[in-house]
C-alpha cells in the first residue's frame, strides 16, 4: 500500500520506541494501556471503556492476551480475536466488569513490514518524508458517516455522536479485525495513539510535532502536552516508533521493553514483557462520569444474538470501511461510551 522505490521488500528493519501516557485533565483514572515488547517487534495501544475502572481491566486484559498469543506464534488478527475472547471471559467472571470493552491497535514487525491489527478508534499513523498518513480506519459512527458522504469533516468536529464507536473488544464473540501490512523504510516514524490524542489535536498538529522533534521521547511528550493544552478531555497514550536498519546499534537504555497498564496516577506500572501484570485491582474509587453502554446484550453469553438495534445511526453505512476485515462483517450495533467532557 506504500508506493516508493525501495529495493526489494525484505529490507531488515527494526523499531526504536518511545512511549507516553497521561490521564489527561478531566478523567479520574487512566484506562488506556500500551505494549512494547523486549525485542521491539510488537507494539500496541488499547483504550478501555467501562465504569468503575472496568475499562482499565479491559485494556490490560486485552494487552496481556495479545502478548501471550503473539509470543506463541499467532498471527496478529488471531491474537486480537483471542484478546476479545479474554475480555469477554474476564467480564463473565465478575459482575462488576460487565459491559467493559476496549479498542486495540497493534503492529508486528516482520520481513521489513509492519503487520497491523486494528479494532476501534485508536489509530496508527505513518510519518514519511514529512507527510503524515493515517493507516487505520476508525470504527466509529462518525467515520462511517464521513465515508458514506453523509457528514463532512467540519461537521464531525461538533457532532454529538463522535463518542460512539462501532467495534470494540469485549462486546461480542464474533469480531471483525482489520488486518493489513505496511512496508517500512528506514527514516519512517510510526505513531500508535488513543483517541485522547486525536480528538484534542488535528492531524496537521500531530504531523508538525512528529516531524519537528527529532528525539522520539521528546516527540511523545510533546504530543501528550499538546493534547493536554487543548483540554485533555480523555486519557492520552502515544507510542512513537522510529524505523531503522536492523543492524543499527541501540541508541540508549530507553529502548527496552515496556508493558504498561496506565494507572490512575498516570504513572505506568512496569512489569516485564514475559510476565505481564494481572489487570489492575478495581479499587473503591468511584467513577462519577461512567455510564453504562447503551444497547448492550449480556456479556455472559457472547454467542447470544442481541435484538437488532434498529435506531442506531450509521447502521446502513460504511461497507467500505470494512474493506480490510478478515472476519465476517460485524453487526451494526454501537454503544455510547462515556461522554466526552
Ligand atoms: Mn479514549
| Proportion of residues in extended strands | 15-25%
Structural class: alpha+beta
CATH superfamily annotation: PPM-type phosphatase domain
Cα end-to-end separation: 37 Å
Number of strands: 14
Briefly note the CATH topology name. Phosphatase 2c, domain 1
Which sheet architecture does the biggest sheet show? 7 strands, antiparallel
Gyration radius over CA = 19 Å
Total domain modules: 1
The CATH C-level class name:
Alpha Beta
Q: Which percent bin holds the helix content?
A: 10-25%
* Corresponding CATH architecture: 4-Layer Sandwich
In round numbers, the mean pLDDT is 78
Overview in brief:
The chain is α+β, with helices and mostly antiparallel strands. 22% of the residues lie in helices and 23% in strands. The protein is built from seven helices and 14 strands.
Description:
This protein is α+β, with helices and mostly antiparallel strands. The chain has a single domain (14-267, 305-331), classed as Phosphatase 2c, domain 1. The protein has seven helices and 14 strands. The chain has helices at 54-71, 76-92, 141-147, 153-157, 195-198, 203-212, 216-229, and strands at 13-22, 32-36, 42-49, 101-102, 104-110, 113-119, 123-128, 131-134, 164-165, 178-183, 189-193, 236-245, 258-261, 335-336. Strands 2, 3, 4, 5, 6, 10 and 13 form a seven-stranded antiparallel sheet that branches. A five-stranded antiparallel sheet has the order 1-12-11-7-8. It has a two-stranded antiparallel sheet with strand order 9-14. Helix 6 (203-212) runs antiparallel to helix 7. The longest helix has 18 residues, at 54-71. The chain is globular. Mean pLDDT is 78; it is low at 1-9, 252-257 and 263-341. It binds manganese (II) ion (MN). Manganese (II) ion is lined by residues 47, 194-196, 234-235. Manganese (II) ion binds at residues 47, 194-196, 234-235.
